[in-house]
């Protein structure tokens, strides 16, 4: 491990020296804030941080740490560059404040969603679903299609990350005696979760960001339902041809929904409706509706706890303390990504990339390429970068990039939060290389989905 860090540090020092000794003013323009070596050093820091995120499991460093540290470094360098170009301090502060507004909206929305999902999970709803599927006695092919279909529709409400964890655990539980079914079932789950999350603002972080940015109205995302469905069905049909025959052993385990489970589910649906009403009817940001729904949950828990005996553990119920460390790490990772990209945008990188892609090749080609890039970089930073670029696009093209970023992350297991999470719980069953063997089938689904979008919505 020490040797790994020693070599990484040596490479970083070497690259930093090359960058600082270079002059790229002729390439980007002498007056551009991107012309100096400090601007290139910012790129080096960002990609190094993302490399550490990429190898999170190997290094043992949680993904939020390098991104938050890099965010601070990048804004320090951006401030120095701005000073060299006589940019007023007020303009720098305004850029940082804009980053804070964007992160705060996403943070509050996701925090409420994660709290609700954690409470519903604690009441046993997901375990009930798992037990019901396992005990039915379906064959491997039946379970493959059943879990995939549930994942597709469930991710539209419960988000693709949570759905991947729930359905993935079902696939691993029922296929423990068949490694081939487990591997193909997990791949199918990731593809289904990302496809189902693409046509709903609640299904994926990328879709949520597009909705909160006001690019597409809530019901407008339903236009990419059919392309999303195609991106799930085509790979699923191909994978079905390679599934093993037979059926897993039937489980007789009995699971029941715990006390007040239906109340939590009902309040979650109410909260989602409130978010939609706040945005579509009242013209208010959707996170405010989510926070209002959270207050209803807190009041319901308080009123319920007053009726419980003092010895009942549910009497002292702290919603915020129950969020696991992994989810806080994810929320802080978003902070780091947003602030890193905000700093790069401030000195002009994202505008330069936007001109190169969207003016050089056109919105359609640029969006399809960006979707494929998200298979490697992860779809969340790709979508946030595009929103920072803010290219001139109509609704059709904004729907196209939403579709491509959502389903493009399925091409590789590291391209989406669903794939990364499933690799975490599916060690020995689902791996990067196992997913990569079937990337060609997922790419066919990606191409068919894009073609369907042009055919149906063009």
UniProtKB/TrEMBL annotation:
Compartment(s) where it occurs, according to its Swiss-Prot or TrEMBL record: Membrane
Matches recorded under InterPro entries: Cit_transptr-like_dom (IPR004680), NhaD-like (IPR045016)
Molecular function terms from GO: antiporter activity
Lineage start: Bacteria, Pseudomonadati, Pseudomonadota, Gammaproteobacteria, Alteromonadales
Alphabetized Pfam families for the sequence: CitMHS (PF03600)
Membrane topology per record: Multi-pass membrane protein
Protein name per its UniProtKB record: Sodium:proton antiporter
Cellular-component GO terms for this entry: membrane
Any one GO biological process: sodium ion transport
Domain Citrate transporter-like: 90-406
Assigned protein family: Belongs to the NhaD Na(+)/H(+) (TC 2.A.62) antiporter family.
